Amino acid sequence: MTNVLVTGGAGSIGSYVCEYLVARGENVIALDNGPSLKVEHLFDSGRFSFVQDSVLNKDMIERLVDKVDVVIHLAAIADPKRYVTEPLNVLNVNLKGSLYLLDRCASQKKKFIFASTSEVLGRNPKVPWNEDADRVLGPPSINRWCYSTGKALIEHYCYAYGQQESLPFVIMRFFNVYGPRCDDLGQGRVIPIFLEKFLKGEPVVVHGDGKQTRCFTFIEDTANAVVELSLNPKAQGMCFNVGSDRETSILELAENMKRVGGFANELVFKPHLEIFGKSYEDIPRRIPDVGRIKEVIGWQATTELEDGLKRTIDFYRPTASASVTGR
């Protein structure tokens, strides 16, 4: 039995990770500054506890780390709109909180699992990206890159602590995670933003020309990868892409959601400048090379996009019998 601290444990990915760990018989502490709604069904398991606090509370972080064997650090600000409007807050949470955890894990020799992001590779045009691909970013004056830079810096710290302090670590780079419980509708990532509009019968706004592409990974597949990477000793000291390698344009995504959900909403196009302002820059293509994770732990994403979208849409419909435009 392993004792695990999951930061961001009541969030989108974190709540699933906590479920999977409890189901495996591990003891879990979830730390989150938000409410416990997504994990309250775990309270009666006897192997789960919840702490509502911030990763910026250093004293509390030290106490929790001392109680566990493994720290899965998922807590972060990962909303593109907040990169632009709250760059200082994004950097503080993503850097300071991570460093508090790293320092304590290193001093106590606790295993540290870090949730990084595909954003660290920026706009590198040479896709698919493997874990050792070059970072290609815009200037620091563009707030768009504060999230990417903060995550990449913690990756550097992981390697440095591993080299100089013998810290056991694993780095995971997520590629566009989506699914039930994944963000509030209308906020965060593209699928919840689109879905809110579809369910309300309002025009769905596609940024730019919609030709920019992403690889969407169902949240249950992602959570399974997190748990396996966290507990499998073969993964230690390495970085892994965690994602599907099916490339889908944003316009195709909107069209798929419209078809799968039986919606009739109009699709409209707006330039990025009108939506995000001058401090945002989009990435044309983002595709992972997933050979390493498949080779080391035998994981690959198995949920097809259409199936994942259907499950997500069904989860978020107000009621099973709700009348939705076009149905």
What labels describe this entry?
327 residues; globular; two-stranded parallel ribbon; alpha/beta; disordered C terminus
Short description:
Helices cover 39% and strands 17% of the residues. It has helices at residues 12-23, 58-66, 80-85, 87-108, 146-165, 190-200, 219-231, 250-261, 272-276, 291-297, 305-316; strands at residues 3-7, 27-32, 48-52, 70-73, 111-117, 169-174, 177-178, 204-207, 213-214, 217-218, 238-242, 248-249, 267-270.
- Poorly predicted segments: 319-327
Q: What's the average pLDDT?
A: 91
CATH superfamily of the domain at 3-178 and 216-242: NAD(P)-binding Rossmann-like Domain
Overall spatial form: globular
Name of the CATH architecture of the domain at 3-178 and 216-242? 3-Layer(aba) Sandwich
Written account of the structure:
It is a single chain. Mean pLDDT is 91; it is low at 319-327. The chain has 11 helices and 13 strands. The N and C termini lie far apart (48 Å). Helices cover 39% and strands 17% of the residues. It has a domain at 3-178 and 216-242: Rossmann fold, CATH 3.40.50. The protein is globular. It has helices at 12-23, 58-66, 80-85, 87-108, 146-165, 190-200, 219-231, 250-261, 272-276, 291-297, 305-316, and strands at 3-7, 27-32, 48-52, 70-73, 111-117, 169-174, 177-178, 204-207, 213-214, 217-218, 238-242, 248-249, 267-270. 43% of the residues are buried. A 7-stranded parallel sheet has the order 3-2-1-4-5-6-11, with helices on both faces. The chain is α/β, with parallel strands linked by helices and 327 residues long. Helix 1 links the parallel strand 1 and strand 2.
